[in-house]
Amino acid sequence: MATYTVPDRSSDGGSVGEYLLHRAKPHLPPWLAWAGTGLAGALGNWRWADNAAAGVGLTLASVALTGATWWAGKATSQQRRLHSAITVAAGSAWLTAACLAGPTAHPVGDLYLMGGSALALSWNIRMVLRQNTDASGEGTDKGLLEKVGLARAQLGAAKVEPNRVTAPLAVEAGEQTNDDVTKSLGRIASALDLPTSAVRYNPDPTSSRRGELVIVPEDMLAEVVEWEGPSNLGGSIAEPLVIGRYDDGSPLVVWLPGDPEAGRNSTHLLIAGGTGSGKGETALNLLTEILSRRDVIVWFSDPKAFQDFRPLLPGLDWAAEGGAPTEVMVAAVEAVIPARTRWLGAHGYRQWVPEAAEQQTSPEHTCRTDGRPCGCPGMPFAVFWSEEAANTLRAMGDDAFTGISQEARSAGLTLIVSLQRPSYDQMSTSTRASLPSVIALGCDARDEGFVLPDEVLAAGAHPGAWGNRRPGYCYVVSPGIPEDRYASPARTFRFTHKATNVMELLAQWAQRNGATADPVTAGAASSVAGRAYTGRTAGGTEQPAPLRAVEEDAMETTGLLVDPEDADIDPEAELPDAEQGDTTPIFGQETGRKPSPEEARRLFAGALEEFESNGQMIVGPKDFMDWCDAHNLSRSWVSLRLKEAAEEGRLEATNQTGRWRIVPALTAA
pTM, whole model, 2 decimals? Predict the structure, then answer.
């Protein structure tokens, strides 16, 4: 049972006195300094009255003391530094006058009573204004830092921007480092009642104890912003691609080509995020920006049959679904890289720049040995995009993109890889290391280390906190973006059903006005892919092969399912009378004639030509099953012929056992 103690009222007077004394103690130092200055003036006058030499010494001491105060206050705020210097200058000047003329002489005494008390009171007011609610006498910033374990850290003057506060921070020398600050970010966010992602720390690369503390008090990303169309229709791919906005409202941009003048390198890009994190909409933001530029072509692989990207298909230069078509596209990209690099080098380009996409009419960029303009067609920038790349990596091996990622940047070609989890068991470490740029969406907290560099995570980035609860939220690390932005959350624009019509119009614009593959790129691709690569003609209306095939299949399935040889049969006509031979048994008869070895080889070569003409450039024994039945040949015989064709240069082995890539007949060895 609770007890109640009667207070001892006899001690009330003592308690009140102690309380008032406790409250007055922090305010006594200015008044003690005022009284001490008056006493020092009286003693000085007794010692140095009418002494000229003492006057000179006191004046020099006054100036030196004021200067020392100004110098010592450089680590504090500007207001405190100025206040301290004025106080010391006024006090030392009065002391000099009091020592020479006397503390009670007119107007020295009046200045002491009025000016001295005013200065002491100004320090009391300053202390009251910067006190915490707990009356500890500490500033709010200092109290906050003490709570999070950074009591001796120093905060500089804060830079206040719309929805962003940046303050320089220095921890105690020899006792703490920048790592201690990064470990305290969660506690700082808790003390300010903000989400963890709202507090970041950008270490100074030249110091292990200094950096900038960034606080974004309001999450502007909570408001959904819908995509309204491309940001720069008809511009160059070298100009920034706007795909969303940061939490302080500034635009989220990325660059793909490099810029030698700005010192920015070309880059490959990884888009990573778990299911429901908004990875598809992020890809749409980026792809629509790319297709809206005049000097770029896109080769796009999507094992999901372009479920999210179908309105944009007409604007692609080459589109392939997963499986064998993607294997052919990867092989074509590998062949295109050295051809493009050779062309750029021959025309004097160390890397791709927008001038390379124009007709070469400058003597500085000519492949002629006499220095005259060559007039060669320009070479547009190229993008190879692998959507749902985990499917391709499983089929072709985890190093399917390693060579491309290591060599393509110098060829004016960017690799974009989109998948959910870029872990070592899906993508080789060499490929991951060659993808310097990343758009990291929400993911499992255990996967953060796969998508973002350690220093960005240490600065406060935390995509695992979002998961799939905040679609489109992301962190972006890429050349051209200031490093202090890497840990800043952003959000891509939202694509709704209203965006479909705009995307279709954009695809039509790209088809009519966008770049087409240059002869070097198209020739290298055709040498590997044959008829599987047709490209997109300028101003044409021809659709990519995958789209045409889908539409043709759709047209065929809209009618009755009738075999072609039965198309002319009238279902209403009477059946004909029986004729001789109708009752002859068709089972148990001798099988058909087996072709001779020479004839079988000719038939096999014809089958390869038929596959090539149909655009199927990856084949294996299973693709010949019906053919074997028709010609009474075994599957083992086909396997031997495939190996022989590879030795003759008609086929090339792929990363998948039992699968072969057809080498176009015109380039066969």
Answer: 0.64
